[in-house]
Amino acid sequence: MDAVVIASGPSLTVEQVNHCKGKVFTAVVNNSYKLAPWADLLYACDEEWWDHHKPDFKGLKYTINESAAKKYNLNLIKHNNKVRFSTQDVIATNGNSGFQAINLLYLFGYRKIYLLGFDYKNTGQHWHGRHPGIMDKFPNMNQWVQYINNAKPLMDAAGLNVVNCSPDSAIECFEKKSIFQCL
Predict the structure, then answer these.
(1) Most distant pair of Cα atoms in the chain: their distance
(2) Which CATH architecture has domain 2-182?
(3) pLDDT tens, residue by residue, 113-163
């Protein structure tokens, strides 16, 4: 089964997002639900994000944050921040919601996952600009790239095929193609 995960890197375009509609199971990360309100799943790990946005989203909503799950009636997925990739019951965190969404879709049974908006460059920017207030964190995205590089052999061993369709991405360990070629 195929799926796409749409994160919020600055290279993400409306055309890429719209191309996915009706073709594949679609998971959106954080603010990307605004570009794809029709998506099947919304994932965000930070309680501050849920507090600020309180999204009116009709699909499945998931988080690893127990407090946010209780407060907003979200589906809670257990996590383990000591593993690089998980094949059973919990997801690996690896520092960001995008990676967590990939691991979640694997647990749902998806074995081919296309990535959009996974730029992972240290710009601090998203397609929607910067996050407001305390959500405006400046993560070390080089570390996020390294987490993915470290998880790749485990993903391969688990039978997960990831295709990076993000046109301006620092992630080099996955095959790169345009979403328009893939779907």
Answers:
(1) 41
(2) 3-Layer(aba) Sandwich (3.40)
(3) 999 999 987 665 664 455 556 555 556 678 879 999 999 999 999 999 999
